[in-house]
Amino acid sequence: MPVTIQEKLSWVPIQIEILYNQEILGVGTAFFYFLEDSSFLVTNWHNVSGRRPDSLTIIHKEAAIPNKLRLFYPQNKNGSDELPEGDSFVGWNAVELDLYENDEPIWYEHPKHKQKVDVVAIKLGIDGTRIYSANAEELDFTKITLRPSLDVFVLGYPRGLTGGARFPVWKRGSIASEPAIDLDGLPKFYIDTATREGMSGSPVYVQHPVYVQHNGYCVPEGGSGTKDAIIGEARRFAGIYSGRVGDDTFKAQLGIVWKESAITEIISGRIKGKSSFEI
């Protein structure tokens, strides 16, 4: 029986398997970001390097380092005129992406902070898929002002779980630090949420609860009053999730989000990363 996907944002994240040849080392999340007339696969540095960005120690218990990603993505598979106009039959394909070309990494990392910013971008097309880039115009975002206490949604695959048919699980939280401040001198902020392994690389969206203030509307960044107000629910892409603060699962329950500016700096900088096999 056909079902309707109620949220366009569910088409943004994709599940990834982190591989050494055909051995699965772990699972994670990735998404696409569109900038400078190109699409880029975005995920965490530790997903492609297999190392912790702070200490550079290898994450896998047997010291295995990834050399591939397996990406699961949605694709139209109609093949007939049986479905009503406007409807689609969607299937999930898997493709393997080599992380090295001639022994050199294919990913870009932050031009200033390198792996200290736990984010990478890989130029990769999405033609022929049903994927939305995280910043797609079709998602109708509003440049709402980020502030502590606003709701956030982290869309990913905790411990490899899906929301059915490889759609993501939505984890809810709130902004827990002043987003304008770069924590530890790096472009990141904290969110208050109980996230789990497998969500590394998840897109993070902020939602403005317009019913709380402004009499049911919000004024976006750069606005000057009710003439610029947005009526109804307002959302904004905020960045990429990379894991919890520290190793403890339950004490702080703070997650790290790298700002959207970190992604754009990586893409614009086009600085190739260093091979994890040579660190």
Automatic annotation (TrEMBL):
Cross-referenced InterPro entries: Peptidase_S1_PA
Entry protein name: Trypsin-like peptidase
